[in-house]
């Protein structure tokens, strides 16, 4: 048993108080999905980075500001909650768009290699062609958030992240040492090694599902569509490396849930879509993973400090208290005209947020 030195832990380990967390990567969707996603996000987090892969994608400042208004209309009264907006890069993104975005307070830009994941068909086909945009982003101190996989039918789906790092990311980060780059939702030991070896301007987010699950949870004993996300879950060796990275207190690794809701019938389909909803219990899920690694004392840095440190934000003033009160995750949650199946549905989690 680890020697818990944190002031936040009481002796019987029944409560854990941390600085209120942020989520540096999530999907809130739009229209009537927001009635579900925004209240859940606002319970767990003070700030969230809202991904731009709507249909059509959020490619310019006007679209981002309209989307922000749409999100704001669903923030529960009295909640202290700030959505941080992103732009979706395409082959047509201009340097002017970056200047406009900076001026209007847009948080960052998201790079989806074209076709690599949900709603990414309008993504980028040539990174090199966007180098002037990246140069402007570096000058404007606007971070680049990357879905780091190649979209090459000849590359095995389990190797697509590793290949992206080798083919694109090494060069990109060398070319733009001043650009803040976040490799989102990392899933492999190669990604961990890459992040550890790069400058402090390059960091990574890690999801709860990649800490708690591996590809057996997706594929063994029957296919589990609700465990399908991209990048896909990898073998347990990679999961173990991610757990070590997340609990290492290395500030280059921080929270980014990639909570990505889809209606149950879209997931349970002959061609089910990628994405896992985790905002019903994101912090509780991370707490479960950190406790399993005997590292609850490292949770606060990961969820509440390293992200703000990297992006140059102050820590949230409010605190969040977790109590060791086991609860069962609901089987489904109402979602638009349907329901969604949350991560760990019908399973018991050891910790829950206290809202007293
Ligand atoms: O699993 C995923 N779902 N990965 C992504 O990159 C996109 C996301 C979504 O939007 O559903
Ligand atoms: Zn995502």
Termini gap: 30 Å
Largest sheet: 8 strands, parallel
CATH class assignment: Alpha Beta
| Residue runs with pLDDT of under 50 for 5 or more positions | 1-11
Helix count?
A: 12
- What count of domains describes the coordinates? 1
Pairing-aware structural class of the strands and helices?
A: alpha/beta
| CATH fold field value | TIM Barrel
**Beta-sheet strand percentage?**
15-25%
CATH architectural label: Alpha-Beta Barrel
How are helices and strands ordered from N to C? EEHEHEHEHEHEHEHHHEHHHEEEEEE
- For the secondary structure, the number of strands is 15
Overall 3D shape: globular
Radius of gyration: 19 Å
Q: CATH H level: which superfamily?
A: Metal-dependent hydrolases
Roughly what is the average pLDDT, rounded to an integer? Answer: 95
Overview of the molecule:
- The protein has 356 residues and is of the alpha/beta class.
- It has a single domain, classed as Metal-dependent hydrolases (TIM Barrel).
- 32% of the residues lie in helices and 16% in strands.
- It has helices at 34-44, 61-72, 95-103, 131-139, 160-175, 189-197, 208-212, 215-219, 236-246, 264-267, 282-292, 299-311; strands at residues 15-19, 23-26, 47-50, 82-88, 108-111, 144-146, 181-183, 202-206, 253-255, 319-323, 327-328, 333-335, 338-340, 348-349, 352-354.
- It has an 8-stranded parallel sheet with strand order 2-3-4-5-6-7-8-9.
- α2 (61-72) links the parallel β3 and β4 (82-88).
- The two termini are 30 Å apart.
- Mean pLDDT is 95; it is low at 1-11.
- The structure holds (4S)-2,6-dioxohexahydropyrimidine-4-carboxylic acid (DOR) and zinc ion (ZN).
- (4S)-2,6-dioxohexahydropyrimidine-4-carboxylic acid binds at residues 27, 53, 117-119, 147, 229-230, 260, 274-275.
